[in-house]
Design goal:
Blueprint (H helix, E strand, L loop, with lengths): L3 H5 L9 E5 L12 E3 L2 E4 L4 E4 L1 E5 L9 H9 L4 E7 H4 L10 H16 L3 E8 L21 H18 L5 E5 L11 H17 L4 E5 L9 H4 L5 H4 L8 E7 L3 H4 L19 E9 L5 E6 L1 H18 L3 E6 L12 H14 L3 E4 L13 H10 L2
Parallel strand pairs: 5-6, 5-14, 6-7, 7-8, 8-9, 9-10, 10-13, 13-14
Antiparallel strand pairs: 1-4, 2-3, 3-4, 11-12
Helix pairs in contact: 5-6, 10-11, 11-12
Amino acid sequence: MKKIVFLILLCISPMNILYGGDCKNINIGSKDFIRRVNNKLVVGEDNKEIFLRGIVFMPSHPSTPDENDYADVVAMNMNVVRLILSYRMFYDPDSPTNYREYAWKWLDEHIRLAKKNQVYLILQLMEIQGAQFVPVRGVPFDYSIWEDDQLQKNFKYLWSEIADRYKNERQIAGYSLFAEPVCSKTVDQWSKLATETIKEIRKKDKNHIIFIERIYGENQKRREISKIELPIEKAFFLLDDDNVVYEFYFFERDEYTHQFAPWRPEPELQKNVTYPDTSMTVIYQEENGTKNTFRFDKEYLDFYLHKQIEFGKKHDVPMFVWGFGLMKTCFQNNKGGLAWLKDVIDLYNDNNLHWTLSSYHDPYFGINDNEEIKKVLKKTIK
């Protein structure tokens, strides 16, 4: 979700497994774990296809999880919680291998509640030492993760430790390694770090899915700032592992979903926008010169979504929308928040996508207190 929300607060939720189809050629891990077969996720001895649809839980610190939150998401027909992690939960920057015991106890409690409610967990590392790529008022960017070998070692060691502790935990669907990467130079930096991290994880854990997100800019130029998109075959990259799922976020467009976000400095976000708005011009431009013009409506959302998922179709791999959603103000004063949400989920359903909504408890994006949204989610999840 744009990572700044993590810097402010964070959230949770969960179940109703959706099955169909049949797959073969399983070669990674036990059949008790969710795993990838070509472009599908399957589970169980009979290799049933499963669609993961759920919500993001973004705690600002390892506070005690609330079982009522899990029960609420179960009631929305969801089956997965994406649990957001910060390196600060686990270690102090000056002592990167001295892990805090309470972080593991906190994770164990989430696993306990997930089991009780028959809900899967995805562990996602969002705040990463030496990585700050989100435009935030008064907060400098930090790309040192790409240049500092010690920071990369800290990153890999943390994932190795998580994998070692939870390698046999079937309630965990997998590990999402790095949220919203923007490289200081080229995509090769993220590809290299991802490859090395997967290698370390697989030494300990051959069971779990690893989720890899596309990059959102090279040479310290994030797409939201530059207004230039990377071609999809450049933003995504294939990895030599049979149990990888490829991820992206979907907050189209920022002018709408992030309007008046207090942490965002861009002037175009400081005004009222509604959905749909056929008078609003949307320009999609890639660095290779490709340029398209749209109105702000479902046709544009469909175009942008298909730009992302064409990678999965071309390479026969599953795609996951790890984060999407709207600021709470988009659901007020006839701004069309529910219409946007319905259209987006319809597109996900039409394309058999896995997704997690951002988010449950959050001061800006949270849905825990919006019964209308919950009704829409319960009705539209298939």
